[in-house]
Specification:
With about 650 residues, this protein is an alpha/beta fold. About 55% of the residues lie in helices and about 10% in strands. The protein is elongated, with a radius of gyration of 40 Å. It comes from Streptomonospora wellingtoniae.
């Protein structure tokens, strides 16, 4: 009988979870976009920063750099050399102790031979290779030294081999030699185009226990990549030693390889790996710290881990052209930072993927664009943040997501007619369908166009709304641009959702003025040009009002500077600083035209400038509008509240 146990799923993100909700991510991107970032930069900043429930790339990057410092502090790279010297000194001491009581000339000759040994450990080991030890303990210590070197040499090439060969016999070393020969043969067959996956599988069946890494290589390419990375790390480990240490250790390695009978086989393997992966760093050094001496294999592992962490640092930093989350190796993240970091990386990828799949962004990685859906979301978010302002959140000033084209319901209904946009009276519509016999007991209700009734509503007057936003360079210099952009998006969202019958136009102006389409508001940026052409902006706003002459006119101006440019007869912009009398006169002429249209101008002044204040006071005197000097950080609240108060009076 089969038995099953069920528990909480703990192997990463829930595979049955609903699609990731990216609305909060869109809002986070919006904050960067409000500050002038393009969509691609805003997305990259979001991925670096993360969200409330997902760690970003910067957090992972900090963890990687902490990990690198931990690896660096493991110890020194000359541990094998230090241990080899200690074993050699022990063997020599044991041999001298055995020779000292012997009064024979042979003992004295042996002592003289030991006294003449070179200071270089490798040279001393070579000299002693044919020495006949008097002391059995000394012979055992010397063999322990040579066994250590054989295992360390192999461990620098095949991670874990040092431990695997502990207490090994001649048959184990013979099997290692056979593995290296088989590996070389397989690489040469691959060079000739004769290698197959079946050959690799047979190799792993025979020698897979000598490659204990997780996950295990699945093909020759993965095995070569693993071995080449370790071989390159071994080269960099040697390069990190002092010239004296390097020469001494290289001599010990050469002697160990010769004693093992694998010198030529290992040399062939090194050449094959290097030719297949010349892109790896085979020569650079690493800085290691710490008190403990590391064996050659452990030192190679540390250097290899540092190289992997350096690659992961580069991938997470995303500081190169065309960088993306696909460049981050998930296995490298798992090895360095654990499963939780892999889950966070998967969630970040989900954010980037769902932004596209849910229709918020489009385009290539380097030319990302916001969709109309994203622009609407950013406008709604800007409006919510504006309403969250304590000054804006006054009675009657809240957002109403249920608002439609019509005013308050009167309580009366009438049959629906083609073209009606009044709300549907669902209860009366269903009652009509049932009374007509459009359903059977327990069956579906079948409806006919004649069944529909709509709720009559009060008439709501429409308004023609113009928001004129200064795009000049001074807005960026004074750090006013983000607030102005948020204000434009919030007002546009408010008008299109709560007052959809209104006609809203946003106009940006610097040396020239232009209408800003809703899709372009989010990616709008200040313009590094000279000129504040309010005259041109008022001209465009006037045309908008003329197209909607039966609408209530509402004109709002956001600026931080007096007019310094105007259109000439040939259509070019004339700039002058200080403002020329011609610019002032042309601008005031447009103000007078606004006055004749019955449109009052409310100016939101974002700078303390005596000349600017005199100008806007003159505008208010001639037009009858108001001058508002808001706190720049709460500009949106002032503008929205002003619009709502005027809109209520108009309605």
């Amino acid at each position: 009988m089969n038995r099953f146990r069920y528990g909480e799923y703990d192997d990463g993100p829930d595979p049955l979870a609903p699609p990731y909700d990216v609305r909060a991510a869109v809002d986070e991107m919006g904050r960067g976009i409000m500050g002038g970032a393009d969509p691609m930069r805003a997305l990259r900043d979001l991925l670096r920063r993360g969200t409330q429930d997902v760690r970003g790339l910067d957090d992972m990057l900090r963890d990687v750099r902490r990990r690198r410092e931990q690896v660096r502090s493991r110890g020194r790279l000359d541990g094998t050399l230090e241990e080899a010297r200690a074993l050699l000194d022990r063997a020599l001491g044991q041999e001298r102790a055995a020779l000292f009581p012997d009064p024979s000339d042979d003992a004295r000759l042996r002592e003289a031979e030991l006294d003449s040994l070179p200071q270089d450990t490798a040279a001393a080991v070579r000299r002693l290779s044919d020495y006949r030890w008097r002391s059995q303990a000394a012979a055992q210590s010397f063999e322990e030294l040579r066994d250590l070197l054989r295992r360390e040499v192999l461990d620098t090439r095949f991670q874990g081999m040092k431990d695997a060969l502990a207490d090994s016999g001649p048959e184990d070393m013979q099997r290692v030699r056979e593995m290296v020969d088989a590996l070389n043969d397989m690489l040469e067959a691959d060079d000739r185009g004769e290698h197959t996956q079946a050959d690799f599988d047979r190799f792993m069946d025979s020698y897979g226990d000598m490659f204990p890494e997780e996950p295990a290589p699945q093909n020759l390419e993965e095995l070569v990549d693993s071995l080449a990375r370790r071989a390159a790390a071994a080269q960099r480990m040697m390069a990190s030693l002092t010239p004296e240490q390097r020469a001494e250790l290289q001599g010990l390695m050469d002697d160990a390889e010769a004693q093992s009978g694998m010198s030529r086989a290992l040399e062939r393997l090194s050449g094959a790996l290097r030719s297949r992966r010349p892109d790896l760093d085979w020569s650079g050094g690493e800085r290691m710290e710490g008190e403990q001496g590391l064996g050659m294999g452990d030192a190679t592992t540390a250097v290899q881990e540092l190289a992997d962490l350096a690659e992961l640092d580069t991938a997470l930093n995303q500081g190169y052209a065309g960088a993306g989350l696909d460049d981050v190796d998930e296995e490298a993240v798992r090895r360095a930072l654990g499963r939780r970091a892999v889950d966070d990386l998967d969630r970040l990828r989900a954010v980037e993927r769902e932004l596209r799949e849910q229709g918020y962004v489009e385009g290539s990685r380097n030319r990302l664009r916001l969709t109309p859906k994203a622009v609407r979301r950013l406008g709604e978010t800007a409006l919510r943040e504006v309403f969250a302002d304590s000054e804006a959140a006054r009675p009657g000033g809240h957002a109403d997501d249920a608002a439609g084209h019509s005013g308050e319901a009167t309580g009366a209904t009438r049959p629906w007619e083609f073209g009606d946009d009044e709300p549907l009276d669902v209860v009366r519509t269903l009652r009509n369908a049932i009374a007509r016999g459009g359903s059977r007991p327990g069956g579906p209700v079948r409806m006919h166009p004649d069944d529909f009734e709509v709720a009559e509503t009060e008439r709501r007057d429409a308004a023609a709304v113009c928001l004129l936003v200064d795009l000049s360079y001074s807005m960026a210099l004074r750090d006013l641009w983000g607030g102005a952009k948020q204000t434009a998006m919030a007002l546009h969202s408010l008008v299109t959702t709560r007052f959809p019958q209104d006609a809203v136009q946003v106009i940006g102006f610097s040396d020239y003025a232009r209408e800003l389409p809703p899709s372009g508001l989010a990616e709008l940026s200040w313009e590094p040009v000279q000129g504040t052409n309010l005259q041109h902006a008022l001209l465009l706003a006037g045309r908008h009002l003329d197209r909607h002459s039966d609408f209530e006119p509402i004109v709002l101006v956001v600026t931080d500077g007096e007019p310094t440019a105007h259109l000439q007869r040939d259509g070019s912009a004339a700039f002058a600083w200080p403002p020329s009398p011609e610019t002032t006169a042309a601008t005031l002429a447009e103000v007078d035209r606004m006055t004749r249209r019955g449109a009052s101008l409310n100016v939101f002044l974002l700078a303390d400038d005596p000349r600017l204040e005199r100008f806007v006071d003159e505008v208010a005197r001639r037009n009858g509008g108001r001058v508002v000097r808001p706190d720049a950080d709460r500009l949106g609240g002032y503008v929205v509240r002003d619009f709502l108060s005027r809109r209520r009076r108009a309605g």
